[in-house]
Every structure is written in C-alpha cells, then in structure tokens.
Specification:
Blueprint: H1 17-23, H2 38-44, H3 53-57, H4 61-73, E1 79-80, E2 87-88, E3 91-93, E4 98-100, E5 107-108, H5 123-135, H6 142-149, H7 153-170, E6 176-187, H8 192-195, H9 207-239, E7 243-244, E8 251-252, E9 257-265, E10 273-281, H10 286-296, E11 297-307, H11 313-316, E12 321-325, H12 340-357, H13 365-377, H14 383-395, E13 414-417, E14 421-424
Parallel strand pairs: 6-11, 11-12
Antiparallel strand pairs: 1-2, 3-4, 4-5, 6-9, 7-8, 9-10, 13-14
Helix pairs in contact: 1-2, 5-14, 6-7, 7-13, 7-14, 12-13
The protein binds zinc ion.
Length: 446
C-alpha cells in the first residue's frame, strides 16, 4: 500500500442527489407530519436504483463484454495490452473473444491479468454477482450470495474476497487533505479461536437430558455464587496474552482489532464524508495511529478532528489545527467539535461485523474495513454507478495476490497491521483435512 497521490476516482454523488434531499417534503412549523430524512429520501428515489439483476440477465453477450471493456479500459479503441502496455484497438478475434496485440503479438482477453483471469463462470454471471454484492448496505455474506448464484461455497467466498482485496489495494490508497476525522472502532474477534471449525448449535434436548439438567440445576446455582470469582480469575489469565490499550487502560483479547478510519469531510452541510481510508491496529495507540496518519494524510494541509483518545494528542500538534471532543461528556463540543463521520463508519462496520458477516477472522480485518470504507463512500451513488465503480477498481489492480489457489489450500499467511506491516498470521481453525467428527472435513474455509 503506497502513499502515491490519490488516483482512484472519487465516488461522486449521482447527479441530482442533492436535489432529492433538498426537495423532500418537510413539515411546516406547527404541522404534525411524518417527515422523511435525507437518507430515506435518497433511498426512495428513482436515482438510487439504476440497475437490477434482471437488467443484467437481459443483457446480450456482446453488451456484457462491452460493459467489462468499458470498465477496464474506457473503450474498445483504448484497449491496453496487459503484456506490453501498448494502447491501441488491437486485432479482435471474434470467435475466441480475445485480442491479439499489434505490438507484441500475444493474445489476451478482457479478464487477462485481473482477479477474474481464467474465470469459469460466464462474465454475465460474475457481473450479476458483483451487482448483488454492491447492493448490500453493509455487506453480503458468502452463504447468502451462494443462495443467489449457486455453486460451491468456497468459490463464492473467494470471489467476494477478490472484491475486498481490490478495494484494499486499489481504493484504500492515496493521500487525503482537508478537514479530516479520525476514529477507531473495536472489532472483537472474541473467542473466535474456540468457535472456529466447531458446530455452534446446542445438542438436541431429550427427556433424559431435561431430567439431568433439572438435577444439575441445584449444583449450578451453588456454582454461580463462585462464578464471579472464577470470572475474575479468567480475565487475569487473559490479561497476560493480550495488548494493553492506552485509551482504556485495559488489556485486550489477542484477537481484538481496532479498525481506525480517517474520513475527509465534504464541507457541504448534510453531505457527510467524501473519502475514507482505513487501517487496523491491535490498539488505538500511537503505533497504529501515527502509521495511518503517515500513510494517508497530508498533515500540514489538514485539520484533525478526533475524540479524546490519548493517541491523537501528540500527532494532533502537527496539523493546522486539532479539534477534539470528549465523548465521555458530550457528542458535540461547545464549538461544534465532533467525529460524526467517524461514528457513521464505526456503526456501518459494526453492523457488518455483528449483523452480517459474524465472526470475521482477525487477519482479514483490513479487507472488511476497506469494504466498509467503500460502502460508506458510495452510499449516495445509484447502484448502477456503484457497480461500475467496483468493477473499475477490481479490473485495474492486476491479478489476485491472495486468493489464487485458495480452494487448493493456498491461504494468505500474513495480516496487515498499521505500524507493524505484514505480520505472520496462520488460519486459526484446524488444518485442512482435519475433522473432529468424522472422516469428512466439512469446516467452512477461511
Ligand atoms: Zn502487447
């Protein structure tokens, strides 16, 4: 992840998005009426839905191919040979739906050197899947996606992760300047190690089991009195394995991650954030915070807005100004200090973590953080525009570095932590081929 100037297209609002919000019916003073918020006005509008799955399925093969070409290169006349970089209207071989480069004579297709190189599914089906994925406000789990598109779970899981990888490498990059907010959101990952690879449902209740439960109830009630003491002992054991958080003064679980976001304000009232960058730390401490500031913020040209976390005090002095609000006391300071955009990101990530994806593997936290950042930034784009934006990023970042050969056991063994770089991280579940219940390994991949 480089610190080159921002080249990713800014997710601009769909034309007229502001008008929809301003034109909404408001109640006059004294009038009792259910009013519509700006968000509701946007989502109920025509502009919010510009492409549907049936639109995609009704596209001809040629139209689908044209769509991919446009998202990757802009037009058929500006096709770039992925082997030598020559830009031209190369020799088109219609039957093979491939080009032959006019300079180096090598052949290539619209997906060559992209995450979808050597794809098995037709382009149309991948496009429909991408649309469904883009349609989720906080995310679409692979299990749900599989119900829409079919196929093996692992293939759907990998295809979703290819989008996340592209967002991580192609969207979550570049310097930002201006009025910037920073905030961290805890992603628990609590007890994920013990949950991995084990069935989570409780055993079936039989009359004998109920009887047994009743008998043990008495013993349990007695045990409860000593539970508090046991819990204290347990947290003491945990304390030796985690990292101490500077803000909370607590020792955090080793699986705990903090997703720290930096969001630049649009400056237009009611329009919210413009761009979002994310990094992941073990704590919201100086190590991660300073690394994220170095990577994403043009410090001398920016104003920093944060909550009262200690880690921001020292770097805050280098900014044009540092406005902070003490969240323990108030949400908005006396002079309007706030981190509302950071909170918006935090809630969206929490919804994804706790309501949609459930039990995100700590080593993939940045992948999911980048996804949330993209979803936050494109929130006022029509879904057709979101799909174009997603595909343009995905097709311009080369082949997948982490997800090729995943179903054959080639898994990413590093985690990206702000300030620590690439940290070795193995899968936390049992090894492929291991089974606690029988000869068949049915654990979900990760
Ligand atoms: Zn070439």
């Amino acid at each position: 992840m480089s610190t080159t100037p921002d080249t990713t297209p800014a997710p601009a609002d769909a034309a007229g998005a502001a008008n929809i919000v301003e034109k909404r019916v408001r109640s006059r003073p004294g009038e009792k009426r259910r009013t519509r918020s700006g968000t509701a006005a946007w989502h109920m509008s025509k502009q919010a839905v510009t492409l549907t799955v049936s639109d995609v399925m009704a596209m001809s093969e040629h139209k689908v191919h044209e769509y991919w070409v446009t998202q990757r290169w802009g037009s058929r006349k500006t096709v770039v040979c992925p082997h030598c970089g020559t830009i031209d209207a190369h020799l088109w071989r219609r039957e093979a739906t491939r080009w032959q480069c006019l300079a180096c004579k090598r052949g290539f297709s619209v997906t060559s050197c992209t995450p979808f190189a050597n794809h098995q599914k037709p382009l149309k089906e991948i496009l429909a899947m991408a649309l469904i994925w883009a349609n989720g406000a906080s995310g679409i789990p692979a299990l749900e996606m599989r119900r829409h598109v079919g196929g093996k779970f692992v293939h759907v899981f990998v295809r979703e992760h290819k989008f996340r990888e592209s967002l991580m490498r192609g969207f979550n990059v570049g310097l930002m300047a201006g009025d910037v907010e920073m905030d961290g959101v805890h992603q628990s990952g609590r007890r994920s190690v013990e949950k991995r690879g084990r069935p989570q449902a409780s055993p079936k209740l039989t009359p004998e089991a109920v009887e047994e439960k009743f008998e043990t109830l008495q013993a349990k009630l007695q045990a409860d009195s000593t539970k508090v003491a046991a819990k204290a002992k347990q947290s003491k054991t945990r304390a030796t394995t985690g990292v101490k958080d500077g803000t909370y003064g607590m020792t955090l679980h080793p699986d705990r991650r903090i997703v720290i976001c930096a969001r630049s304000r649009s400056g237009v009232p009611g329009k919210g954030g413009k761009r979002t960058r994310v990094g992941v730390g073990r704590t919201e401490g100086p190590l991660a915070v300073n690394a994220i500031i170095d990577q994403f913020l043009a410090v001398p040209e920016s104003i920093l807005n944060t909550d009262g976390a200690k880690a921001y005090i020292e770097p805050g002095t280098k900014f044009l100004a540092h406005r902070s609000v003490e969240h323990a006391k108030e949400l908005v300071g006396p002079a309007g200090e706030n981190t509302n955009l950071g909170e918006e990101f935090a809630r969206r990530h929490k919804r994804a973590e706790q309501g949609i994806y459930l039990n995100i593997e700590p080593k993939y936290t940045l992948d999911y953080g980048a996804e949330t950042a993209w979803r936050s930034d494109t929130r006022r784009m029509g879904n057709g525009g979101q799909l174009e934006h997603l595909l343009a990023i995905t097709l311009r970042n080369g082949v997948s570095q982490f997800w090729l050969g995943y179903s054959k056991g080639r898994h990413r063994e590093v985690e990206f932590l702000a300030g620590e770089g690439e940290v070795p991280a193995r899968s936390s579940g049992p090894k492929k081929g291991y089974s606690a219940t029988g000869p068949k390994n049915v654990r979900p991949p990760r």
